[in-house]
């Protein structure tokens, strides 16, 4: 890991040294630095570090590196930076600006993202396993063979109990006791609900879906904190969880689950109606505007919607449409790569394209199309072409967490070829729009 260590050393130097870093974290593609004083960080120098594909400034400094390598750089940087905590410089104008722009909606969507993002690797792995088994079944393999049963058993596990994990993460994110959130998930998905009748109506396991689970888990946190304020410390460990589970359990069965069921039906019905009535026009608009949605952080709110569609319909027709936004960006980057003479820009594109084809678009977004300007627009246009096609042929995905070529094993109803055709159309459209009128060499001057 010599290359990753050198990257970590350079990033640490330009971020203001280890004394300026409070915390180092990472996701699939981004290294995230929680800085004490933003004025000490030279973001332009960080951009120039070999291997860095771009940066994005939010509550923390996001450094786009790419999957696989970001884990290694984070490990090296954590070792170099060490620990320690102190408050951010209160007089930092940039930090004040970020806090001002950090709206309650953005904070809520960020929390929703934090609930689901840790679950994505398991959802992806399980979804692909299930996809492989279903593909083999459709190809004529006997579903009663042992290896087929094992694949389906392993692949279906997380989807069977995902509600428990969502409840756990929800309570954890809102600073409650995670196991109480897990119990909220169990209350919603427990098969024993079918044996209960309230007001003459039988309860339905899973009704309310992930909306109900998140709401019930959040209420667990609120009630737990409220009880803890008044309960004597000597009996807190006994009565706080007992009263919390009892009270929220009753509220969940009598109120939250029915209300969340109505909300779930409304959201899934609305999306179905939009795609049914709007057809390819709706698909084009949804995909064409998805990259801007990512930029403002609103895409985090779509994850529970995808999961609810899968829970209700068995698949999400929305994901293949939105996945075309990244494909349009890949096409745009290819056009830039062919036209430009800027070696720095070509190096960034070479590093970001492989993961772009696999559906991880952040390196291209923050390292190429967005800094250049006009290619960002032509990438959106290319994605709109692919999204319109996917809506027209009605592809859908049985899982979430991936896009691009990686999404193919998850495509439902054997529409793999149709999905691939749409992907190629988005690549081609993004390429043509960018090559013909989306890029000039002068734009590359900002990349140096």
Defining key terms:
single chain; mainly alpha; two-stranded antiparallel sheet; 17 helices; 6 strands
Structure explained in plain terms:
The protein is mainly α and 448 residues long. 66% of the residues lie in helices and 5% in strands. The chain has 17 helices and 6 strands. It has helices at residues 2-14, 43-47, 69-81, 93-101, 104-116, 120-138, 146-173, 178-189, 209-230, 236-288, 290-295, 303-313, 318-339, 343-357, 362-372, 374-393, 416-437, and strands at residues 21-26, 30-35, 54-57, 61-64, 197-198, 201-202. The strands form 2 sheets. Strands 1-2-4-3 form a 4-stranded antiparallel β-sheet, sandwiched between helices. The chain has a two-stranded antiparallel sheet with strand order 5-6. Strand 3 (54-57) and strand 4 (61-64) form a beta hairpin. Helix 9 runs antiparallel to helix 10 (236-288). The longest helix has 53 residues, at 236-288. The protein is globular, with a radius of gyration of 24 Å. It starts with a helix and ends in an 11-residue tail after the last helix. Residues 84-100 have low confidence and may be disordered.
**Residue windows where pLDDT falls under 50 for at least 5 positions:** 84-100
Share of helix, binned: 55-70%
- Largest sheet properties: 4 strands, antiparallel
The ordered H/E elements are HEEHEEHHHHHHEEHHHHHHHHH
The gyration radius over C-alpha positions equals 24 Å
General form = globular
Q: What is the straight-line distance between the termini? A: 26 Å
- What's the rounded overall pLDDT mean? 86
């Amino acid at each position: 890991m010599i290359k990753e260590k050198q990257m970590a050393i350079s990033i640490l130097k330009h971020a203001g040294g280890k004394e300026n870093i409070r915390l180092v974290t990472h996701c699939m593609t981004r290294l995230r630095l929680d800085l004490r004083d933003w004025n000490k960080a030279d973001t332009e120098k960080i951009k120039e570090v070999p291997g860095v594909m771009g940066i994005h400034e939010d509550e923390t400094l996001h450094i786009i590196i790419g999957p696989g390598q970001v884990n290694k750089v984070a490990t090296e940087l954590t070792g170099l930076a060490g620990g320690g905590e102190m408050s951010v410089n209160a007089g930092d104008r940039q930090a004040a600006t970020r806090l001002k722009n950090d709206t309650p909606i953005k904070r809520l969507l960020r929390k929703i993202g934090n609930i689901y993002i840790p679950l994505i690797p398991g959802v992806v792995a399980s979804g692909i396993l299930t996809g492989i088994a279903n593909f083999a079944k459709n190809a004529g393999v006997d579903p009663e063979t042992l290896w087929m049963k094992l694949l389906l058993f392993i692949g279906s596990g997380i989807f069977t109990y995902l509600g428990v994990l969502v409840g756990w993460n929800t309570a954890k994110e809102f600073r409650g006791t995670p196991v109480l959130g897990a119990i909220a998930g169990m209350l919603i998905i427990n098969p024993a609900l079918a044996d209960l009748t309230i007001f003459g109506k039988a309860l339905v396991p899973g009704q309310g879906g992930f909306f109900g689970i998140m709401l019930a888990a959040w209420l667990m946190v609120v009630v737990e904190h409220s009880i803890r304020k008044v309960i004597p410390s000597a009996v807190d460990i006994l009565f706080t969880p007992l009263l919390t589970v009892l009270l929220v359990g009753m509220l969940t069965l009598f109120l939250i689950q029915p209300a969340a069921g109505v909300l779930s039906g409304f959201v899934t019905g609305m999306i179905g109606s939009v795609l049914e009535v709007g057809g390819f026009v709706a698909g084009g608009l949804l995909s064409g505007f998805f990259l801007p949605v990512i930029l403002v952080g609103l895409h985090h709110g779509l994850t529970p919607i995808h999961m609810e569609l899968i829970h209700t319909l068995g698949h999400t027709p929305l994901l293949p449409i939105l996945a075309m936004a990244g494909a349009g960006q890949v096409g745009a980057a290819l056009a830039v790569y062919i036209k430009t003479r800027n070696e720095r820009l070509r190096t960034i594109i070479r590093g970001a394209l492989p993961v772009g084809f696999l559906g991880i678009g952040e390196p291209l977004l923050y390292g190429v199309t967005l800094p250049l300007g006009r290619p960002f627009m032509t990438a959106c246009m290319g994605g709109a072409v692919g999204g319109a096609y996917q809506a027209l042929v009605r592809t859908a995905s049985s899982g979430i967490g991936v896009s691009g070529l990686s999404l193919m094993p998850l495509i439902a109803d054997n529409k793999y070829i149709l999905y691939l055709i749409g992907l190629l159309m988005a690549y081609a459209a993004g390429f043509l729009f960018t090559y013909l009128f989306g890029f000039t060499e002068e734009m590359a001057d900002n990349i140096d």
